[in-house]
Amino acid sequence: MTREEFVALVERLRPVADARPAAYRWRVRAFAWLGYGFILLLLLGSLAIAGPLVLLSRVAGGLAIKVGWLLVVFAWRILKSLWVKFERPAGRELTRAEAPVLYAAVDGITRRLDAPRFHHILLTDEFNAAVTQQPRLGVLGWPRNFLLVGLPLLQSLSPEQAEAVVAHELGHLRGGHGRFGAWIYRVNQTWEQLMMQLGGDSSWVAKFFRWYAPRFTAWSYGIRRPEEFEADTAAARAVSGRALADALCALRVRGAALSELHCEPLLSDVKTTVAPPVDAYSRLLPIAKSGRLPAAREAEILAESLKAETDAFDSHPSLADRLAALNQPARVPELPATTAAEAFLGPLLPTLTAELDAAWLADNQQPWTERHAELTRQRERLADLADRHARHRALTPDERWELADLTEDHESAEASLPLFRALFTEPEKELAAKYAVGRILLHQNDPAGLSLLDEVMDREPNARANGLALQRAYHERQGDRAAARRLETDEIRHADLADLAAEERSVLPKLDTYFPAELPADSPLLRPLRAGLAERPAVRVAWLLQKRVVHFPEKPLYVLVLELTPEARKQIEKAEGRCSLVQELAQSLEMPGEAFIVPATNDNAWLATIARRHPEAQCYVAT
After folding, report:
1. pTM
2. How far apart (Å, rounded) are the C-alpha atoms in residues 22 and 176?
3. Which tens digits make up the pLDDT trace of 63-116?
4. Which of 2, 105, 443, 589 could be cross-linked to 532 through a Cys-Cys bond (beta carbons 3.0 to 4.6 Å apart)?
5. Nearest CA among 499, 592, 589, 585 for reference residue 545
6. Measured distance CA(477)–CA(622) in Å, rounded
7. Which of 494, 445, 448 is nearest to 469 (CA)?
């Protein structure tokens, strides 16, 4: 099923789910059991055949017992796939003795909703809250409930807003959404594990899986989105609709404030500081509580969030739809006088903050140091290139690209624009430079970037996915929903086409068509390849073929066939030798484009035969 077909199915099923939600839920259950029924059929069928074969092996001979035991192993692999393991969620467990106020608040909401209780409450370092269930008995269920709350989130919300968020999560458990969602997850995981057990995509079971899995996911979407509205309704009843609406709006506005006032400055410090800070979360807490962006910026962030529509691949409704269902207007909530973290965690808050500081430092010590060294090297390189450019000393096209790229990273996008534009006349850099200018202009909300990206995408298919995403984001910011929807459809169709192209380019079947590469013998693209081959004494002759492809034919797929010395050929007949040689060549040879590198061995004799039929495909001969 393509992405476009998936989206069409989700849209077709949505009114069915809305009209009769209870009946629809049973249909989803039936579809889930269809998957388990197929697995059960495989299991019983293999055992039904294996049993008699093993019992009659004395009469039927050794072949029967071998086949019988193969079927037993097959059945065992199916059984293993049914035992889906859930990893315990990551987070620092908060005990009832440590956080009595938090537990009292959660207990109160649990009673008001008549919901199942949480067995564990985990504190995380994320700006998020979630509920998850971990079945003790795998496919049989018996869940253990986990509530995950992020310290940055608790420090950004008032106690009432945080209670509304927790009530929303409990609303899922109250309606059985958590159990049903976990069961849906187990169905998907069961099939993924079964695929691994039975040999992956090449097995015949994969045909059923490829038909079943996307359809089951599409059907489940019709339940997940209404469940979000039901959980919102439960939270509004248990706490208040206004508190939940303010929490939903705060997630957008406070999240952006944390990013701009804490995360970006923190990451900027890596440019000048060798070692990471020891107090990353200690710095965050006061900003999360009282840090604010300018009022106009906050209003802009909220307005952009309200423009966003529900994504076809997201089970959560949009912010606008959730606020409309709550019958609450959008607004930027006031900062809390006392945060939920302060109210719920009390004297434990400094200890938890210190623990997160230490954990963050341990995780970021080495990456920070490495990034600082890399940025220092880049600044030195930028200074050298800028000095040579200012002195009107000739720079190669690669150096001019590097200067523009480093200028954008270390100075500003605005300063890099003339440097990128100057590369429009360089054939090898033209498309990359036009893409960079188009990207920068769209980020500045300048519509001139649209035509530049259109030109690049028409000539370079690999730029299409990111280019369409940039254009869609621009139109969403402008409030042009029709254009954004059209581009989203284009994105989906391109992704489907890219999948087909990737599949086509992943293998070299004998029945495909191969012909001499459509490159002149004196093409400059072949010079670095010939130079690299000349440094390989093991290579005697090389041919450059081209595979005929249906998707993106303007992007050639080359096949470099190598005739090796007898000694080298004997060495690579071993699997490990072949793998190491091909990897080394792929990393060191400068190919003219996307390519396979194929040593002419017994396994690939058919391809070597094709190459020898075309003397014009010969691109290198050892002297």
Report:
1. 0.79
2. 13
3. 556 665 666 666 676 666 566 566 788 999 999 999 999 999 999 999 998 888
4. 589
5. 592
6. 59
7. 494
